[in-house]
Design a protein that fits this description.
This protein is globular. The N terminus is likely disordered. The protein contains 3 helices and 11 strands; from the N terminus they run ααββββββαβββββ. Helix content is 14%, strand content 40%.
């Protein structure tokens, strides 16, 4: 099944959550303990790879392979027939659609990816944690824009025993969710730097750069 550009940008390259420092109400001690565990885990996840399943608000499903290298780098290679490739090089998130022959870029800091790819993960600045939920096999943390300038929210989900990032859900202003589930995420080392480089494949304008 195909993936819409809207659901892609919701899940990976839109719905900015970063904002200037914002003091939020203190979480209950038990909730803060889970947040601290999640942050420690994410900051210790230097390199990883696995599979992902993305489901948009209409139930359309797309799969692919994920590579990540903190700080800042990630690669989402969508399986055919999607034709989509999403790469973060540490500063910019590039989105290439081979079928539509389009290429778009977004600042990493204006995407949900920055929440867990940052060098120093801060869930107490820039975002407001609105909920910490416990489940039979783990827990989730929901965050919104701290200054309420951006509608929507992102929920990071974790499994227990062992602690691991299970995925995330981005919800837009109309409460439509786009969910990314991670499968077989495992720590690794020595990922090729070329995985996190994506250049604009479109032909350059012959006249560009000429005086």
């Amino acid at each position: 099944m195909t993936l819409t550009r809207r659901s892609l940008t919701l899940a990976l390259a839109a719905a900015p959550l970063a904002a200037p420092a914002f003091a939020q109400a203190a979480l209950p001690a038990a909730d803060q303990a889970l947040v601290d565990r999640a942050v420690a885990y994410l900051e210790g996840l230097s390199e990883a790879k696995g599979r992902f399943v993305q489901t948009d608000g209409r139930g359309r499903v797309t799969t692919g392979q994920l590579f990540m290298k903190r700080p800042g780098k990630a690669r989402f290679a969508y399986d055919p027939p999607s034709g989509l490739l999403v790469v973060s090089d540490g500063g910019v998130v590039s989105v290439q659609d081979k079928r539509l022959k389009t290429f778009d870029q977004y600042p990493l800091g204006a995407t949900p990816l920055s929440l867990f790819l940052a060098r120093t993960i801060r869930l107490d600045r820039g975002v407001t944690i609105t909920r910490v939920a416990r489940m039979a096999d783990g827990f989730s943390i929901t965050a919104r824009d701290g200054k309420k300038e951006t509608a929507g929210a992102i929920t990071l989900s974790f499994t227990e025993a062992p602690l691991a990032l299970a995925g995330w859900t981005v919800t837009d202003a109309q409460n439509r969710p786009t969910r990314v589930q991670l499968q077989g995420l495992e720590r690794t080392a020595g990922l090729d730097r070329s995985l996190f480089v994506l250049k604009d494949p479109r032909p350059k304008n012959p006249g560009r750069g000429k005086v």
